[in-house]
Amino acid sequence: MAPLLATVAAALSAGYYIEGKYQLGKDLTVVRAAVQARKRFDNCIKENDCSIYNRFEEQCQIRPYSVALVFEGSSYTWKDLELASNRLAHWFVANGIQKRDRVAMMMFNSPMFIITWLALLKLAVVPAFINNQITGPVLIHSLKVADAKMLVFDYELAPAIQESLGEIQGLGYKLYTMTPQEQVEGQFYRQLSKESKDAIEMPSFFGYVDWRQHSAAGFSKEIRRDVQMHDPASLIYTSGTTGFPKAAVMDHGRCTIATKSWGVLCKIVPESKIYITLPLYHSAGSIIGVGQSWTTGCTIILARKFSVNRFWKDCVDYDVTHFQYIGELCRYLLHAPESPLDKKHNVQMAFGNGMRPDVWSKFQERFNIPTVFEYYTMSEGTGALMNVGKTLRDVGAVGYRGPIVRILQNTMRIVKVDLDTEELIRDKKTGLCIECGPNEVGELLTLADNKQQISRYVGYFNQPKVSQSKLVRDVMVKDDIYFRTGDILYRSKDYYYYFADRAGDTYRWKGENVSTAEIADSMGHVDGVTACTVYGVSVPGQDGRAGMAALVLKDTILRPDKDGEYMMVDEVALQAFVERMSVHVSKKLPAYAVPRFLRICEQELDITGTFKNRKVEYKKDGFDLSKVKERMYWWTPQGRYLPFGEVENAEIVAGRARL
């Protein structure tokens, strides 16, 4: 018995050692999801059953009277959504929409967004999800790229459409609001005086989608029989952090792989309840959030928009098991006052991307979230990184690729790049790219091989030149093709992957490369900071760019007055904060990485609808006192931040100040 026990103990020890070193369990989780997704993909092709809508229809047959969606206290069964989308589909047909047409949707989160999406997919029509925050030239650009027949929108967005009405109509769009006519008239006339009501007529540049009077009869599956995996299921626009949005093609194949694999990775079952506060016009909220329910049969708890005050109450009230995050959402929750609801919920997993390292552990501990599933992917990309994080070892990583995954999916490379010119650095002898070693930053490239489903590159709709510009040849071998993500990453020696920056955000100062994301993460640890973004600004007579940080502070330091007209500043608290920041950056950051300027913002940072910081305007403003009316500080030769004004600006412009 003793020798047997010793053998078992030795085997267990070896097993624990191998698992601890190589984390094969994490690899096997990813492989299992990939295998099941591929099996679903192949079966759909074999049975001419490629439309992602068919996955929704399957749930309607399996569990017609189970709750599919909850929104602001109202529940909708799978049957409810099916019948409503049937009626709306009949309306589209009656108004000239045919198979393979495109219809632009500009709507807020609501059941009607999902019903409209389903109605179009049912007819094999392609929806284009228009960001509901855009206006003017950006809106016109997005609609021009979509080249759709019709734009349906929520009435609250009518002013943005009316602002560019002539140009939109010039593109050939028919305009209809999804908001019921009686509701529109109530909203419109409620704002007017009695005299105005008699004198002003309702706007007449749009029609009404009066879908409720149409038949609830379903449509034959035959209408979608010839839908192929490469056909667009939707057009989803990039966030537009660096320019005009681009329309990424989410085809039925990508949707099939994503919805199936995310369901497996997140361990979502029909009894699960998934809380979604992200905008549905983005692929995270729509495809990964709502779309996976068409494969798993779970219940979606949908919020009109993200709310710090309502978040945990909703999680408790609706018995949420999973929620989706992106960007700064988790930071907002972490900086909210502590509440009894913080740990009263039943959330088992948070999944998403963009959780900052300085937030991760604090967030998991305070809110008792067992698992954080952080992933890295792009709507138009050809690969993904995944990190199902449960331990301290996982914190901060956007992905983990163990030995099994690297063998089966050898499709990703981090290569050297000139951070100033954004040109890839090539070997002078071979002409090929140079792969980075452990802890060396470079641009992430993903294989673009259309012979393999896992690495297919679809590109952007109606923008062939832009699509081709994202590809690069001769990376690892002659004539191979990779997709340029435009993101700067690095990996550890044990193959955890970490996000460093966007290409173009990293800047050079004093001959050194500075990662804005890493600096922002560090500064975010200083007590008093609720949000931070870092960027490089040009300085007269200096090579490279100096670092500047835009900071939003806690309302114990800076807060609006009761009327919201001006900011009230606790001068003592502000001075103490500046001193804390001075000590922190001098101790925690290399001298060249210390931001030379601080901008104390009086409003929240400018972000996209998916909580990504927009830096373009901050970069343009720089430290120009004619543009920046908020308080600024500069890093003095004495190694501390002091107020920055006209005198200090004159010294810098004249080249007399030492930065």
Can you tell me about this structure?
- Residues 56-431 form the AMP-dependent synthetase/ligase domain.
- Its main location: membrane.
- InterPro entries: AMP-bd_C (IPR025110), AMP-bd_C_sf (IPR045851), AMP-binding_CS (IPR020845), AMP-dep_synth/lig_dom (IPR000873), ANL_N_sf (IPR042099).
- 45% of the residues are buried.
- Helix content is 35%, strand content 21%.
- Helix 2 (24-46) runs antiparallel to helix 11, helix 4 (78-94) crosses helix 5 (111-122) and helix 11 packs across helix 12.
- It has 659 residues and is of the alpha/beta class.
Which regions contain 5 or more consecutive residues with pLDDT less than 50? Answer: 8-17
Strand order of the biggest β-sheet: 2-1-11-10-12-13-14-15
Number of helices: 22
In whole angstroms, the N-to-C terminal distance is 73 Å
Tell me the strand percentage band: 15-25%
Number of strands: 30
The helix fraction, in percent, is 25-40%
Computed Rg: 26 Å
